[in-house]
């Protein structure tokens, strides 16, 4: 699957853990979205849902590109993607939580699970064969090139 499509799908489903947590605990369903909005320049102290959606798209696209680059050299699959998602969580939440109070205020567990799901889904989708113009599928193995 192409990286853009994989990233979009992963970005959409990656919010399931934090959304489920908010539903089960009576929390704010848009808290994470608004907190992401503070990542945009000039909005550090101004959370917002629209800004959060924009930030989520930008951050997800960037990480999907990183995972796609890694997947070109090594097959990730869901397991490798999940590990990558945990590494992304360490970076995203470690850095953002220190610098952005709205991110720091979010429950940590659901946010880590969101990242894990993003990585697992992206890795699994990048591992799928791609359709060719002739209606067939094409796959490549690490270390081998197509003729």
Short recap of the structure:
The chain has 147 residues and is mainly α. 67% of the residues lie in helices and 3% in strands. It is built from 7 helices and 2 strands.
Keywords for this structure?
disordered C terminus, mainly alpha, 7 helices, globular, two-stranded antiparallel sheet
**What is the helical fraction, as a range of percent?**
55-70%
Major sheet: order of its strands? 1-2
- Name the shape in a single word: globular
* SSE arrangement, N to C: HHHHHHHEE
Radius of gyration: 17 Å
Query: How many beta strands in the DSSP annotation?
Result: 2
Portion in beta strands: under 5%
- Report the sheet with the most strands, covering strand number, pairing sense and barrel closure: 2 strands, antiparallel
Mean pLDDT: 88
Sequence stretches where pLDDT stays below 50 over 5 or more residues: 143-147
Strand-pairing-aware structural class: mainly alpha
Counted by DSSP, the helix tally is 7
Detailed description of the structure:
This protein is 67% helix and 3% strand. It is an all-alpha fold and 147 residues long. Strands 1-2 form a two-stranded antiparallel ribbon. A hairpin with a 5-residue loop joins strand 1 and strand 2 (137-138). It is globular. Residues 143-147 have low confidence and may be disordered.
Tell me the layout of helices and strands.
Layout: H1 3-13, H2 16-25, H3 31-37, H4 49-73, H5 77-99, H6 101-104, H7 108-126, E1 130-131, E2 137-138
Antiparallel strand pairs: 1-2
Helix pairs in contact: 1-4, 1-7, 2-7, 3-4, 4-7, 5-7
């Amino acid at each position: 699957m192409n990286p853009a499509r994989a990233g979009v799908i992963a970005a959409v489903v990656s919010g399931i853990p934090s959304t489920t947590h908010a539903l089960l605990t009576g929390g704010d369903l848009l808290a994470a979205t608004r907190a992401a909005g503070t990542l945009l320049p000039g909005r550090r102290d101004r959370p917002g849902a629209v800004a959060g959606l924009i930030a989520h798209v930008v951050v997800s696209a960037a990480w999907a590109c990183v995972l796609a680059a890694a997947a070109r050299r090594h097959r990730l699959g869901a397991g490798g993607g999940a590990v990558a998602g945990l590494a992304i969580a360490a970076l995203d939440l470690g850095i953002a939580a220190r610098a952005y109070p709205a991110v720091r205020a979010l429950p940590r567990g659901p946010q880590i699970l969101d990242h894990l799901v993003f990585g697992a889904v992206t890795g699994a989708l990048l591992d799928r064969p791609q359709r060719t113009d002739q209606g067939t599928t094409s796959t490549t193995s690490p270390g081998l090139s197509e003729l």
